[in-house]
Amino acid sequence: MAEVVLRDVEKRFGKIQALQGITLEVRDGEFLVLLGPTGAGKTTTLRIVSGLEEPDRGDVFIDGVRMNGVAPRDRNCAFVFQNYILYPHLTVYDNLAFPLRSKLWRTEESEIRKKVEHVARVLKIEHLLHRKPDKLSGGEQQRVALGRAMVRNPRIFLMDEPLSNLDAKLREEMRVELKSLQKNLGATFFFVTHDHVEAMTLGDRVAVLNQGVLQQVGTPEEVYEYPANVFVARFVGNPEMNLLEGFLEGGKLHLRGLALTLDLEKVWKGGELPSRVLVGLRPENILLGQGEAVGEVYLVEDLGADKIVRLRVGETLLRVRVPKEAEFSVGERVPYLLAYEKFLFFDPTTERRLG
């Protein structure tokens, strides 16, 4: 196990600023997920931790030791990539044994056999040891790639979108297995993904990255319920949070798009607000069939476990999550109620959450 600390890390590739002042801690034995869109700088962050890239500025520490300039082989980090990079001419057994046969580790064959067989049992791939990669499914290849990392007992697992090449069902199964494996090993996992569902289900904490800037770090619940800014509010959650323009006047909150006026004291218990605000509300915090305000059903999306109703109110489309049993028809006019206690307020200029 290991603790990783990045302190004010910056990285540039030509004119592109990949990372800007990243300060982040991965705690000993933690499953930390780095979440962000394509091009956010997630893979670059992992490569800097592993030593495959050096920061232009800032420091990387593993267990309190500064790693700047230390070769990858001397950091004892295991990197699991999106593409599994198995050796096609070798059996599963030999793929797993490969790191231990390197000049760096120089392990006796009897010890290699013990370690390979142990890892194979943990990953439930004992029956695959004599096959070659082209005879394996995607999930089996993923397990072998993970096993090759596990076999040398690294200090930290660096995982770069390792589930993205799997189909939806297998991805769900592997999420469960990965989380269970990490807990059983007591290992430190630094996991990169663009998928907020993976982040929310796997992470002890989630770090959200965008355009090389760290946006927020917190538990999955904190990131979902209390996003630090508009970007996090929109990126985390499916469908994304409803954001409505509002202004304050005479102790009232006026929501422009809904032509709705509310007593400010009902929806805000904090300090002073700016005259203009953005009001955020998750789709599950709008109740259809209740209240006095009325909207028109524009679209109904059936997701199986529930439905998403697009409700037109004037020129505004609200995203509303409803139970799968709920029946609504396009064009139907229905009352709706906003859960005022769930309102989040953002500054429209800085886009930071207020309060």
TrEMBL record:
GO MF entry, a single one: ATP binding
Record-linked Pfam families: ABC_tran, TOBE_2
InterPro entries: AAA+_ATPase, ABC_transporter-like_ATP-bd, ABC_transporter-like_CS, ABC_transpr_MalK-like, ABC_transpr_MalK/UgpC-like, Mo/tungstate-bd_C_term_dom, NA-bd_OB-fold, P-loop_NTPase
Cellular component annotations (GO), alphabetically ordered: ATP-binding cassette (ABC) transporter complex, substrate-binding subunit-containing
UniProt record, GO biological process: carbohydrate transport
Keyword terms: ATP-binding, Nucleotide-binding, Transport
Domain ABC transporter intervals: 4-236
This protein's record includes keyword Secreted: no
Matching PANTHER family: MALTODEXTRIN IMPORT ATP-BINDING PROTEIN MSMX, OSMOPROTECTIVE COMPOUNDS UPTAKE ATP-BINDING PROTEIN GGTA
Name of the protein in question: ABC transporter ATP-binding protein
